[in-house]
Q: What sequence folds into this?
């Protein structure tokens, strides 16, 4: 103990002098020649630490050959090294600190000519640093035949790693160019992988390729932040990003890795218990960065440790999937093993458990490149596996299809025979239903003649959901009903037949059209509400003595009364039938004169659309009614039907169509 106590002064106080004349094309690593002073108070300045009182307080501290590693520390560190130039000429040198995440990195050069100070660190904008580089570089012109001292002041909330190198200026400029070429190769590979796999994603629509693209991009961005490329080119003056970005980006990379692994290896079915932990870790890697932003010093070590644990868990899960003999897990395991090793090395270096040297500094970048390429191979193998499985499945399906063709042909013959019999029976039934419906629409020819009535009834199929009725209330008064049940075909036809039976019982009541409509609705709701069907209807009473039209409309398209110079519409006076009971229907009255013309119709007249999805519309129908005023009723209605057929241009109608025309 006495020996160690007495000997420590000589051991830690020894000063090494670096002779600049020995510097050639390779760097000199300075840590072994540097003395260190730790300032836990962060209050010391250069005048104080360079005073004789502090001469003996600079100590030799353990370090690797290439760098110091003070891990996460709140102290300010002062470093001192003595240089000598014995040459008769001045020497251009550079001091390089090859670690970009140092907040304060100031250099003081003291010699017989005076004191020079250089400010750097990520708080100093790139344009104001003494040398524009991703690292902290200090160019110094060392006078001839002189001895000088270099002081470095370092502090940072990030891990304080100090790989300190001494270069000849010309050699470092050459090295800087070579270094950028290497970085360009790495990021060029990353960019090529992103573009190629993005192209593959758009072709195959496989989300694994998109996840791979996001993973490669975020990993490359993490590496750019880690080695200072991002600070040099992406955010040239953002201390916040320099301080926070690397750990935030690593969390993002791990989240994407977890999602990519779950998708690629189907961990939810292959290893469901481990998959639950993967989901939990995704949540942790989302929450911890938020807490890390809110309180950097509290959560910095926690988030770094979480990165290591998450990486370990991904590796463990990949191993367990490989044990399950999942082919693609072998590729994934090998790929992530490289990145895992690089991440663990980076974490241990940041925490101060392993030394800082060229291997631990550049390891993550090499690991990232290997992981990127191996994952691309994994996706390619997965694609080949899918193709082979598809080909096997197609061959098996073809074989099964050929084997079952004979059975299918026999079954088709049997089914065809059965269907033909069924279709024949259905056609016969539809023919009978059509005749029944046509007979139910037959109106007394005398009434048609007295009313000068012409009608056209065109169902979509053999039977339809439109119907009308003409009855005589007195010598001079006639009642017309036109109605349209929702839908068409047999279902709608059966409803209309049943409803017509209800109307036949009330149509001759000496009541106004509105009262008849209200009774009609009540009966409809009592008898047919369970059918979930609706009905539009229009009741028109025509009085030839008073030359008036009284009408009530239950949501039916407006009828058109064409006069000499204008048209009048018989607008809706109430809601559709079948919505609810006790609906009140309004009633309106119009006058007509000899020579006027009345058209009643269903919505099949104007609610037709062509192949361009253009609707014929009510306005065109009204214009047609008015433009055919000089034609007979038969010609006018035929012209309307021909116009509709031209508008449809060969496309089938989708609704029943009924038109009634009356000349006064």
A:
């Amino acid at each position: 103990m006495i020996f160690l106590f007495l000997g420590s002064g000589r051991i830690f106080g020894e000063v090494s002098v670096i002779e600049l004349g020995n510097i050639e094309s390779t760097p000199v690593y300075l840590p072994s020649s540097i003395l260190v002073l730790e300032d836990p108070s962060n209050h010391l300045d250069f005048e104080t630490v360079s005073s004789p009182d502090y001469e003996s307080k600079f100590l030799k501290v353990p370090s690797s050959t290439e760098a110091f590693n003070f891990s996460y520390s709140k102290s300010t560190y002062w470093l001192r090294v003595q240089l000598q130039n014995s040459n008769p000429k001045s020497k251009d040198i550079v001091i390089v600190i090859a670690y970009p995440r140092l907040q304060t990195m100031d250099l003081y050069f003291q010699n017989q000519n005076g004191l020079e100070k250089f400010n750097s660190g990520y708080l100093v904008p790139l344009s104001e640093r003494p040398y524009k580089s991703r690292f902290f570089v200090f160019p110094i012109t060392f006078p001839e035949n002189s001895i000088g001292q270099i002081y470095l002041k370092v502090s940072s909330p990030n891990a304080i790693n100090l790989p300190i190198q001494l270069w000849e200026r010309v050699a470092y400029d050459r090295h800087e160019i070579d270094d950028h070429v290497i970085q360009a190769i790495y990021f060029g590979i990353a960019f090529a992988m992103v573009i190629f796999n993005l192209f593959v994603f758009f072709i195959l629509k496989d989300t694994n390729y998109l996840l791979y693209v996001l993973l490669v991009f975020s990993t490359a961005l993490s590496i750019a932040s880690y080695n200072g490329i991002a600070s040099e080119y992406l955010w040239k003056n953002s201390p916040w990003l320099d301080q926070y970005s690397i750990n935030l980006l690593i969390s993002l990379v791990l989240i994407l890795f977890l999602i990519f692994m779950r998708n690629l290896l189907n961990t939810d079915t292959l290893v469901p218990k481990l998959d639950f932990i993967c989901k939990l870790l995704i949540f942790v890697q989302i929450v911890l960065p938020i807490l890390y932003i809110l309180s950097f010093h509290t959560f910095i070590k926690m988030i770094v440790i979480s990165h290591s644990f998450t990486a370990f868990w991904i590796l463990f899960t990949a191993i367990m999937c490989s044990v399950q003999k999942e082919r693609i897990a072998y590729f994934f395991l090998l790929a992530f093993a490289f990145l895992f090793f690089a991440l663990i090395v980076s974490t241990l270096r940041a925490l101060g458990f392993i030394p800082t040297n060229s291997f631990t500094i550049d390891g993550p970048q090499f690991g990232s490149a290997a992981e990127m390429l191996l994952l691309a191979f994994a996706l390619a193998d997965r694609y080949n596996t899918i193709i082979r499985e598809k080909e096997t499945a197609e061959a098996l399906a073809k074989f099964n299809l050929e084997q079952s063709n004979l059975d299918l042909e026999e079954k088709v013959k049997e089914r065809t025979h059965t269907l033909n019999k069924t279709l024949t029976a259905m056609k016969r039934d539809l023919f009978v239903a059509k005749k029944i419906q046509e007979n139910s629409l037959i109106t007394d020819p005398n009434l048609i003649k007295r009313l000068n009535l012409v009608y056209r009834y065109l169902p979509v199929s053999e039977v339809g959901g439109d119907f009308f009725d003409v009855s005589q209330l007195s010598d001079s008064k006639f009642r017309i009903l036109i109605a349209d049940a929702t839908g068409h075909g047999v279902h709608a036809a059966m409803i209309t037949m049943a409803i017509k039976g209800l109307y036949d019982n009330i149509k001759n009541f000496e009541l106004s059209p509105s009262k008849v409509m209200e009774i009609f609705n009540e009966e409809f709701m009592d008898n047919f509400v369970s059918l979930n069907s609706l009905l539009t209807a229009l009741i028109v009473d025509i009085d030839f003595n008073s030359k008036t039209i009284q009408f009530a409309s239950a949501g039916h398209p407006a009828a058109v009364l064409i006069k000499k110079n204008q048209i009048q519409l018989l607008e809706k006076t109430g809601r559709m039938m079948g919505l609810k009971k006790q609906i009140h229907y309004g009633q309106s009255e119009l006058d007509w004169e000899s020579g006027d013309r009345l058209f009643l119709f269903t919505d099949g007249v104007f609610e037709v659309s062509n192949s361009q999805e253009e609707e014929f519309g009510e306005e065109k129908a009204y214009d047609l009614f008015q433009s055919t005023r000089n034609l007979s009723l038969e010609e006018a209605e035929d012209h309307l039907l021909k116009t509709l057929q031209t508008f449809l241009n060969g496309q089938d109608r989708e609704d029943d169509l009924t038109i009634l025309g009356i000349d006064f």
